[in-house]
Amino acid sequence: MIRPVVLLPDPLLSRPCVPVGEIDEAARCLAEDLLDTMRASSHSVGVAAPQIGVSLRAFCMDVTGHPKARSCHGELVLFDPVVLEASSEPALMEVGREGCMSVPDLTGDVARARALVVRGITPTGAELVLEVDAFEARAVQHELDHLDGLLFLDRVVAGERVFRRRRYR
User: Fold this and answer.
1) Into which CATH architecture does domain 11-164 fall?
2) How many Cβ atoms sit within 10 Å of the Cβ of residue 134?
3) pTM of the model
4) 25 is known as an active-site residue
5) Which of 101, 124, 88 is nearest to 41 (CA)?
6) Structure confidence at residue 169 (pLDDT)
7) What DSSP letter does each residue of 96-140 carry, written as one string?
8) What DSSP element (H or E) covers 165?
């Protein structure tokens, strides 16, 4: 089911989410709702559970076909994701422009790790470890921030690096 996207300044977006825990029917329904909501927006590459009003540690993502993607694991949902490896060394960080469905009028330049390893649980209950880089790494970090109650605006490199978004039709 396509769910309405929660918009800033809704306080749900600034609260850390709780773990999903057991992968049951409710979790699988959440996975489908995340995917349906992402697919309904032609410019979305990911949606986190708090963006659809659910304060659980879950997100979906798909960077397939994005021109800045190198690694691409296709369409996926991760429950209770954890970063296993990431570097915060400046040489391994990259500044890039980000937007968000929950902040529809703005974009901003955010520094993110160029590569990371993340582990999570799939809707089938299997553990999945992903090595991601480039745009896929940026997308994962963006969605993980949502689960920690952060938006890209909390991470912009400088106040003058926030911009009005070009409107898509």
Assistant:
1) Alpha-Beta Complex (3.90)
2) 18
3) 0.95
4) no
5) 101
6) 47
7) EEEEETTEEEEEEEEEEESEEEEEEE-TTS-EEEEEEEHHHHHHH
8) none
